[in-house]
């Protein structure tokens, strides 16, 4: 596709599902799984009403803000999505990615809220729930070329199964910040509990603040002190930083849950209506990715679209990280010297990248290095996710009614 065509279809563009099926069939599976799950979360939000509905809306707009910042700030422009059936913003943003934000934030936050731990601990329980839900998507998605990463960006250089540790930290910290802002701003303005609905102005303000401030708040309160200070200033590995955050979150949630209220354990008194839309979402999600880990054939993938710009190997880009240090990365993907083992050019004419500078080109999937190991890892995280969500959804409290009246002394 020519650059001119990209400009003409900047806001929205379409791709035939048949074309996706022929060249990138597993990617179509992702779309077909995500949209029903998003609809289920929307049905749950509308059925509950009040702040549940508002949370879904806030997550949607937070996703739009986060994606636009990521595309248009050069220092963090380090990933490129594959071309789905509906693309937006210069073919950078798939519609299904926009849908994933309310899907994951809503499921993880509502599930964590059933622990009845209050705003602070609920945010970190939601961060853990978000991470375990999203991590299988991260592992499977990169191997199946649903997106690609920048080859030399120092922020995402350290990886496991081609997933940057910074991506895991992003899910943990942004989810916690989203939950803290959504419930915290509401608490400050209304003095009410987490799901008690305020006035229209108060709820609209909470939605706007959460949508706009989650990204900068997460960077300022989590990424800088817990990652950049340790990793960039003190030389700790990304893996150590992420594990430290996970352990901290687990400790906060565990200590709070040890002193949780009686209403967080209603199953002791009878039946629990946990078989709802969110349970179905969790089952669809983890079963889909467990299946993809077994049956998807990455070596057959042909992905044509916007990728890391391809060009000269000797041009670099100078930039500053979040704590003001000068760092650099290559301006272009070097076709003769790159370390992205999930992709190559074996399926293009001549078996190598086209010469010159290109933003739109074709890449090819690669076989599994060890398929049994890959299945073990993906299935392990799927089982972990199912166990965690079962305890949140089925073994914890009920959803709070938006207009529930609480006793006051």
From TrEMBL:
Pfam families: DUF7802. The keyword Transmembrane applies. Keywords: Membrane, Transmembrane, Transmembrane helix. It comes from the Eukaryota. The chain crosses the membrane at residues 24-43, 55-73, 93-112, 124-149, 161-183, 204-224, 236-256, 277-296, 377-398. Signal peptide: none annotated. Residues 9-392 form the DUF7802 domain. This is Hypp747 protein. It comes from Branchiostoma lanceolatum.
């Amino acid at each position: 596709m020519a650059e001119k065509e990209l400009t003409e279809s900047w806001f929205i563009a379409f791709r035939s599902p048949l074309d996706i099926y022929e060249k990138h069939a597993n990617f179509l599976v992702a779309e077909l799984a995500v949209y029903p799950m998003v609809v289920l979360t929307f049905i749950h939000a509308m059925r509950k009403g009040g702040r549940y509905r508002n949370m879904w809306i806030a997550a949607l707009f937070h996703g739009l803000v986060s994606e636009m910042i990521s595309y248009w700030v050069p220092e963090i422009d380090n990933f490129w999505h594959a071309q789905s059936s509906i693309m937006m913003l210069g073919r950078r943003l798939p519609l299904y990615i926009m849908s994933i934000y309310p899907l994951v934030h809503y499921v993880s936050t509502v599930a964590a809220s059933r622990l009845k731990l209050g705003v602070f601990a609920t945010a970190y329980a939601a961060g853990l729930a978000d991470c375990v839900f999203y991590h299988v998507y991260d592992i499977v998605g990169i191997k199946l070329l649903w997106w690609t990463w920048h080859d030399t960006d120092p922020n995402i250089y350290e990886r496991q199964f081609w997933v940057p540790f910074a991506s895991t930290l992003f899910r943990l910290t942004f989810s916690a910040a989203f939950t803290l802002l959504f419930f915290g701003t509401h608490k400050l303005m209304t003095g009410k509990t987490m799901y008690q609905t305020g006035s229209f102005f108060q709820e609209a303000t909470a939605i706007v603040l959460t949508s706009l401030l989650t990204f900068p708040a997460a960077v300022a309160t989590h990424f800088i002190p817990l990652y950049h200070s340790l990793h960039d200033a003190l030389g700790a590995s990304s893996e150590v930083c992420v594990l430290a955050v996970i352990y901290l979150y687990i400790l906060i949630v565990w200590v709070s849950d040890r002193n949780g209220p009686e209403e967080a354990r209603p199953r002791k008194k009878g039946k629990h209506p946990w078989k709802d839309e969110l349970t179905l979402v969790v089952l669809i999600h983890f079963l889909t990715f467990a299946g993809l880990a077994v049956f998807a054939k990455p070596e057959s993938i042909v992905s044509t679209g916007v990728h890391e710009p391809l060009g000269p190997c000797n041009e670099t880009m100078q930039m500053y990280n979040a704590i003001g240090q000068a760092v650099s990365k290559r301006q272009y993907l070097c076709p003769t010297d790159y370390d992205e083992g999930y992709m190559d050019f074996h399926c293009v004419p001549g078996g190598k990248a086209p010469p010159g500078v290109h933003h739109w080109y074709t890449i090819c999937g690669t076989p599994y290095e060890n398929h049994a190991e890959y299945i073990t890892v993906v299935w392990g995280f799927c089982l972990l996710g199912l166990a965690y969500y079962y305890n949140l959804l089925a073994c914890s409290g009920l959803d709070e009614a938006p207009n529930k009246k609480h006793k006051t002394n």
